[in-house]
Amino acid sequence: MIEVRPVADRRGRRRFIDLPYQKYRGHPHWIPPARLTEAPQFDPKRNPFYSGADMDLFLAWDGDRLAGRVAAIDDHRHNEVYHGNLAGFGFFEADSPDAAAALLAEVDRWAKARGRTAVRGPVSPSLNHVAGLQIDAFDTDPFLMMPWNPPEYIGFIEEAGYRKAKDLLCWLLETARAPMSRLAAIARRVERRHNIVVRPVNRWRLRSESDKLYEIYLSAWERNWGFVPPTREEFWHIVKDLKWLRMLGGLLIAEVDGRPIAATTSVPDVNQVLKGTNGRLWPVAWWRLLTMTRIITRARAVTTGVIPEYQEKGALAVLMYHALESAKRYGFREVEYSWVLEDNLLANQTLEKAGARIYKTYRLYEKTLG
Fold it and tell me: Measured between alpha carbons, how far is 224 from 100 in angstroms, rounded to an integer?
């Protein structure tokens, strides 16, 4: 019989964090997150997301055996933005249908006790962080900050009464096949017409540069489904973690007469370094990081945003060209654009015209509580 218990102390939190490292040890496609970045995201004192949200952690036990985990999340800022009554679940793992059912039922009870009428997930802990359940392409490695889960989780979640809310698409582009001449011609034409200048983010002024990225992010994503504006400190918390990646050539800002109008953030796929390390950087991963230009062949385009005024003026194509040019300069053979909402027609059409293909899908689920 499965028993679900709340995490009430440091030992329980360590077990919660360590569970996937144990569960997937040696798995060919699960990539362990770096432990130095994993633990802080559960600490309210170190993660500014929790200034506007509550999260409780639960572990499922089958006798003395740990059988799963889940986080129940109450994002107050989401409900303020959408005038809703939604809770969330995330960081989900389960060894069996029974463990999954018990964990998700606990989330339902937790949400009802707070007066919430629906639950959405997985969000770990929000759409601004790691989100979605992988529903295909299980034989591929995830890119940096993207989840991987076994295929049976689809049934676990749907059997608990959850239904599709939205699909998040991952596009893959082989840089050698990108039509660079055509993209360059389009980019130059748009740049001349609208006086657009694209430049890399200054890594030595990353804090002030992040303020510009933040303003673009808020404006560009404002109308996106499910978007909740992060606080300035939450945004900085995410951006500053990029400093240790060393290669920041993929962080680009587009300006018109000095005014930021668009930005894109591409990062090396450090998962290629972390694979096989169980999340510990020393000594193997650290040595790989020092020589990662010889190891990393992929990059992930994490965010690309254009303020509404320039969304129909070709600014997105300009950013894509310059980001691809940077990726090729660093020797990246593949770029994953992830994720893109399934109904974001402008972004999806631009990616298709650039030669990218949809190769993986993540799904957000939602359940109305009775």
Answer: 30
